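hey so i finally got around to running both of the ones u sent me last week. sorry it took forever, my laptop kept dying halfway thru and i had to restart like 3 times lol. anyway pasting them below in the order u listed, first the sequence line then the C-alpha cell line for each. didnt double check formatting much so if smth looks off just lmk and ill redo it

first one:
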Amino acid sequence: MSGRYDHLDESSVRERPSRRGTRPRTKDRPSHEDAVVGMVTGVDRGRYTVRVEDRTVSAMRAREMGRTRVVVGDRAGMVGDTSGDEGTLARIVRIEERDTVLRRSADDSDTVERIIVANADQLVIVTALADPEPRARMVDRCLVAAYDAGLDPLLVLTKADLADPDLFLRHYRALEVPHVVSRSDGDSGELDPAGVDEVRAHLVGRTSVLVGHSGVGKSTLVNALVPFADRATGAVNAVTGRGRHTSTSAVALELPDGGWVVDTPGVRSFGLGHVDPDTFIEHFEDLLPGTEDCPRGCSHDEPDCGLDAWVASGRAGPAGPERLESLRRLLRSRTGDERS
C-alpha cells in the first residue's frame, strides 16, 4: 500500500539544528603551569587555609579535582586570586605528590583508610601517665601507623608529676623510641618549661603530627610550643576517666624557630585495618635475618617461628628477647589478640 511519503528519500529529510556548540569535546585539562603552590594548614567545611610564603590564602577545591581529597599538610597548586587579601578566594587545581601519608581506619575490620595528614616526617605520640591512665595498646598502634607511613616516632609522656614514667617506659626501651617526660604544676596546670624545651628541640625544622587520647594534655602542649595558638583545653571526666574532645579539626601551626606541628582531634581508637602485618618485621632489621628459617606464611607469632631459635642463639644481640617480644606485641595490637 502506497503512502503519502513514498516519494521522499533521505535527502529530503531536514535535520533539526543542534543547540550545542560544534566544537568537539576534549578530555584535555588545563596544565595550570602558573599555579601557586602552598601548604594546606587548615580544612573547614569545604574551605581550605593555605600558607604561601609570607601570606595566608583562602581557597576552595576546583571541580576538576573530582573526588581528590585535600588534607592538612598537602602541597596544593592554586589559581585565581592568591593574594591573600580579605574576601578573596583561590581555587585548588591539583595536589602535588605526597612524600608521606599518615592514615588510620575506623577499626581493624575496616580497610578504608582515612588520611590524617600528608607530608609529615615525625609522629609525636602524647600520652598521660595518669588522669587518664596510660593505654599502652594505643601507643603500640600509633607506633605501627608511624612505621607504616615512614614517620619517625617520638613518645611524649605528660603528667609525670602524678606517676613514675619508668614503669611505662620499660615496654619501649627495646624499640629505642625516643621519649620526653613532661611534668606540670598541680596548681596552675602549666607545663614544666624544661620539658617543653626538650620537646621543642625534637620538633625544630620538622613537620610533626601530634596524636593522643583526649585529655592527655596535647592541646596544652601545643599552646606552650606555639605562642598565640590558643588551642582549647579540657578536663578529664571523673566518672569515665576519659577526656573531652577539645580540638575538632586538624590544624598546622608554625613553630617560632622553624618547623610545623599539626594538632589533631583527640582519638579513642586508632584502626589499623589498612596496614599489612607482614610488613612489621621490616622495621626490625636485627630480627629480619632470622625469618629465613620461618615456615611459609609464618606470622612471626606462632610456635614454629624461626625467630625464637635466632634470638636464642644470641645472633640478634643482647636485646633480642625484648625486641622479639616488642615485635609480637605490635603484631597482636593489629590482630586484636588480647595478649598484647
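and the second one:
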Amino acid sequence: MSGASETRSPKPSALNGFEETVKDFWNSRPRRPHSGRKLAGVAAAIGRRYGIDPVVVRIALVVTTIFGGFGVPFYLLGWLFLPGESDEVSGFESLIGRGRSSVSPAFAVVLMILTVVSAGGSITGSWFDGGGLISCALIAAALYLLHRSRGHENRPAPVAARTSYPAFTGNGAFTMTDTAEAPSPARGWDPLAADPAGWDLPDAPPAQEPRPTPPPPPSYQAPQRRPRSKVGSATFALAVVTAGAAVLAGLNGATWFDAQHIVGLVLGVVGIGLVAGAFARGGRGLIGLAIPLAIAGLVLTAAPFKNFDVRGGLGDINPTPQALTELKPLYQHAAGDIDLDLTKLPDGAPYSTTVSNGAGNTTVTVPANADVTFDCHTGAGEASCFGRKSDGVGEAALIGTDNGPDGVGGQKITLKVSNNVGDVEVRRD
C-alpha cells in the first residue's frame, strides 16, 4: 500500500446547454447504414444511433408528412447531411470539397433542390394553418431531447480519410496502395528507391509439389425464396378504391373531397401500407407510389389554386339561356372551356349567376347596355373584365361595377367568375 489515491478515468461530461448539444449532435451524427434501410437509411441511422426501433422513426415521418408535410424535407435533409456508414463526410460536405461521400455531387444538388421545394411547400401551404412549422418544431425538439438523453450511447467512429503512399515491392520498384504505411526516414532508403538487398540475385524458387485434386463440388441447390408479401398489392388496391370513392363523393356534392384532400387520403393509405410492410418485410415498391403522390400533394397545397373542384363535367360547354327560367345560378365545370352567352335573356328583374371552372378558359358575354357588378378571378392565367386586366399566378380578383356606354339604367346583372387555371374574360356584345 503506497497510500496514494487511486487514479480513475474521468467520466464523459454532460451536455451543458443548447449550443453544446447542437455541436455534439453534429460531430456525432448518425450514419446511414448499408443494411436495414428502406430507401436512404435515414430512419435506420437515427434508430441505431439512439437505440430505438427504426419503425417508430418511419411512423413519425409518415405522420409528419400527412399532418404538415415536413416529413419529406426532413428525410431529404437527412439524406443530404448524414454521412453513409463508410463515407468520410456527408453528401453536402463532399459537394463543397470536405471529403469523400457515396452521394455524388450531381445528386447532392438534386437533393438540395428537392429539399427547398418540399420545405417551401410544407411551410407556405398546408391543410392546417402552420402545420408545416409545427411538425418541423416537433421533429427538432424530438432530436434535441434524444441527443440530450442518449447522445453518449452508440457514438459512431469516424471514418479515416484515405491516403496513398508508395509501397516497396522488394525488387527496387514502388507501387501505389491505400493500405501501405508511409515510408520512414529511419529505414535509410536510397533516394533512388533501390534497396541494398535488392542487388543480390534471388535464389531459385523451390520446386512446388503437385497439388492434390480437389474433390468435386457438391450439387448446387438454389436458395429458397421467401414468400412474397401481399402488403404491397393489398395497399395498392385499397389506395385505388379510396381514390375512386373520394372522387365519387366529390362529384356527388361533398365539398371536402377536393384534389388536395383526395391526394392526402391516398397518401395516407400508402403510408399505412409502408408501415405495415416494415413489419411484414414487404411493400417496398410502394415507395415509388408515395414519392410522386407526396410531390403532387405539395404542389397542390403550395399552389395558389387551393380549391380545385372535381365536380362538374369535362369538355367544352356553350350555354345560351333564352329565359330566366333557363338561367342557372351556378355553372360548374371540372375541365374544359365555358362560353356563357347572356345576351339572349330579356330585360327585366335583376339576376345573378356564378361560373366556376377548374381548368380551362371561361368567357361570359353580357348585353351591351347592362349594368354589371362583377367579381373575376383566376388562380393562374389572364383575367380581363370590361377593360381591366390582371395576368400571372395568384393575382387579386377584379371587382367592380360597369354600367356600359349608356350609363346607369340598363339591365342589372351580378356576375361572379372564378377559374383555377385558365383565362377569364367578361365582355359586352
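quick thing i noticed on the 2nd:
Residues 259-280 form the longest helix (22 residues).
anyway thats it, ttyl
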